[in-house]
Design a protein that fits this description.
With 203 residues, this protein is α/β, with parallel strands linked by helices. The protein is built from 10 helices and 5 strands; from the N terminus they run E-H-E-H-H-H-H-E-H-E-H-H-H-E-H. The structure holds dephospho coenzyme A (COD) and adenosine-5'-triphosphate (ATP). Pathway: Cofactor biosynthesis; coenzyme A biosynthesis; CoA from (R)-pantothenate: step 5/5.
């Protein structure tokens, strides 16, 4: 079994690559999805968030108030650390659980889609998630900012704050053995990942 991690800065194109791999039939563990599941109404983590950040962190329906929390944590590194320390261990625990399940069903390749891999690699190692290959998908900041404004309806300031809260391209590349450039056409980008996967599966 080969375990790969896909990472990349926000709006670099990581989900486009990971969705393609999922469409090819490879089991995918999506850490953004796990992070959303971890804060479902009634979950212990949502209760911790409410205790740490106050009542404004929940909507009237008792759900996580994502825009409110984003405004608060992406402008304050201390608050972001508090959120990360609540979320990351729980998200990895679930990621490992899913990985075990896919492994037991005989998966040949498992894809972990982890936006913040550079920031959390120690948690991954501690929990026993060792990656055979790490792929980072990258594009220059100005292109990513334009994508975030267009597809996520962010303001320029919000896009810049989110990027500033993340590792740099150089840091992500330092833990990766493959860098995919998402300024090339999507078709070429997907052909590139397919070529790597084929090589790894037949090595
Ligand atoms: C702060 C929250 C509520 C904002 O929600 P929002 O809907 O705006 O963003 P969403 O969750 O869809 O994430 C979009 C992208 O933002 C970036 N991002 C998310 N969390 C973080 C973080 N803690 N630090 C830096 N960047 C982050 C990632 O690139 C991610 O792909 C949310 O991002 C959150 O709960 N973050 C903490 C969970 C986390 O760390 N997830 C990543 C797991 S590796
Ligand atoms: N090679 C490409 N050429 C042009 N646009 C692209 C390319 N790759 C991705 N995109 C577009 O960029 C936007 C962001 O891509 P995607 O959602 O895959 O990024 P991401 O890194 O997963 O972002 P996030 O961290 O927000 O989840 C999407 O609108 C996507 O269609």
């Amino acid at each position: 079994m080969i375990r790969i991690a896909l990472t990349g800065g926000i709006a670099a194109g990581k989900s486009t690559v990971s969705k393609h791999l999922a469409d090819c039939g490879y089991p995918r563990v999506d850490y953004d999805v796990l992070a959303r599941e971890a804060v479902k109404p009634g979950s212990p983590i949502l209760q911790h968030i409410q205790a740490e950040f106050g009542p404004s962190s929940l909507t009237q329906n008792g759900e996580l108030n994502r825009p409110w929390l984003a405004r608060n944590v992406f402008s304050d590194t201390n608050k972001l650390s508090v959120l990360n320390s609540l979320m990351h261990p729980a998200v990895y625990k679930q990621g490992k659980w899913l990985d075990d399940r896919y492994r037991k069903t005989g998966a040949k390749l498992i894809v972990h889609d982890i936006p913040l891999l550079y920031e959390t690699i120690e948690i991954a190692n501690q929990i026993g998630l060792v990656f055979d290959h790490i792929v980072t998908v990258e594009a220059p900041e100005n292109i990513r900012i334009a994508r975030m404004i267009r597809t996520r309806s962010m303001t320029l300031a919000q896009a810049q704050a989110r990027i500033a809260s993340q590792s740099s391209q150089a840091q992500r590349e330092s833990i990766s053995d493959v860098v995919i450039d998402s300024t090339q056409p999507v078709e070429n980008m997907l052909h590139e990942i397919d070529t790597y996967i084929k090589r790894w599966l037949t090595a």
